[in-house]
Amino acid sequence: VEADDVLIVGRVITLDPGLPEAEAVLVRGERILGVGRLDDLRAESLFRGHIVETHGGLILPAFHDAHLHLLKYARTRAKLDCGTFGSLHDLQIGLRRQAAMLSPGEWLRGWAYDERRLHTPRHPSRWDLDQAVADRPVRLEHRGLHLDLFNTRALDLLGLMDYQAPEVERDDRGQPTGRVYDGARLLRSRLPRPSRREIADAVRGASRQLLAWGVTSVQEASATNDVEQWELWHALAESGDLGVRLFFLPGATEWTSLRESRQPSSRLRLGPVKIMLTDGGTDPHLVRAHVDAAHAAGSGVAIHALNESDLAIALYAFRESRPTPPGVNDRIEHAAVIPDALLADVAEAHVTVVGQPGLVYDRGDMYLADHPPEQHDWLHRSGSVLAAGIPYAVGSDAPVLPPDPLLAVRSLVRRVTRSGSVLGQSERVDRSTALAATIVAPSLAVGVQDLGILRRGAWADLVVLDQALLEQPANATWTAQLCMTSGRIVWSREAD
Ligand SMILES: [Zn+2]
Description:
Blueprint: E1 6-13, E2 21-28, E3 31-36, H1 38-44, E4 50-61, E5 63-68, H2 70-76, E6 80-81, H3 88-100, E7 108-113, H4 115-118, H5 126-132, E8 138-142, E9 147-150, H6 152-158, E10 168-170, E11 176-181, H7 184-188, H8 196-212, E12 215-220, H9 227-238, E13 245-248, H10 255-258, E14 268-270, E15 273-275, H11 284-296, E16 301-305, H12 308-320, E17 331-334, H13 340-348, E18 352-355, H14 358-370, H15 383-387, E19 392-394, H16 405-414, H17 431-445, E20 462-465, E21 482-485, E22 488-492
The chain binds zinc ion.
The site of zinc ion has 4 residues, from loops.
């Protein structure tokens, strides 16, 4: 039985340079059958086709997040967001409230606490947490993800009260303070592992949030991505818990073993190899060797380069390694700092820059305080990157930022910070450029031509927005009217 045609009527922005605007989109099955004038499409549609009237809505190709950590984001949604508390007292009240909603003995998990927002001269201690909640284990993750705070009950359960290790901080009297630095390895075997059911529920919930925001494709860019994770995503796709298309960027030490293990599908595909650089500690020759190996195997690379010295190492690796294979893209992740002097070198490297402009809103006030004024235009740049002819795609880096694509679009267009200041005014771009960076550029960055564009033959992944949404403040809450992936309506505000 052939699926019914769906004719969606509104103001269509196609992101197809051949036909930028249209009156309607006709969908048959998983693909787009036509884009154009309403009368023409109505004549072309099957007799039994039905019409979706968007009442002046804006119809766009669906959004595509070019860099996030989906599993981590999914799991943080079940945790208390501590990033908004403005004092230790507020944090303690928040913890008590959260504890009241959990079952007895259940772990209380919080994340994204930020000592700069708490306005405390030091990180909180286990005694500060005990004051709020002592009768159940509490774990708070710092926003930088390199520090964990535990209360006394948690340290007890984890066997860390008497455990001597450099990660477990102790005070002058030898008492553990509750702070555990860079404890990922130490904690992995001790913390309770989430059950398969908990992971599936978390991913299902995160997918639903993404679809409500019109995001139907994401790129999972965790450096720890290995065979086990790759298999997990396949299982979650098969069970229907993964509601979005996922491009999996395998970690640099793991990719050879999983490259041939599965056939690519329309839901799950491999992206470029993710290469991590950590502050100053990375050997440029090692990075170059990773790039060489990936290129030799016909794969692109995505080099994590946060600051100026990371960027220099990445550019060295691209310059000195064997050429990129045809049809494959290399990229630089974050590029949070690009000095003027390096823009031409980035252009010459023929790489895509994958940026997080939402940080201009979220962290912009701190950047303004921390960086000298002459560097303000170098931070999270986008306008000058595009002007230099460098492809530019946007990711949220969720859970660092919520994967709300309009946060990025509004940041790209306005560059306004939380407090209302402007960071790097000359880096602003116009709205259609901002939409291209959040919709079509991420697909092109993974070599996919039939996503992120509304034209005959492309995947029927689209979103309907209220027109006024793009004018609202960066942090305004919203959902799409409707979101469609592979021709199926997967989110509808009316049905919610
Ligand atoms: Zn990231």
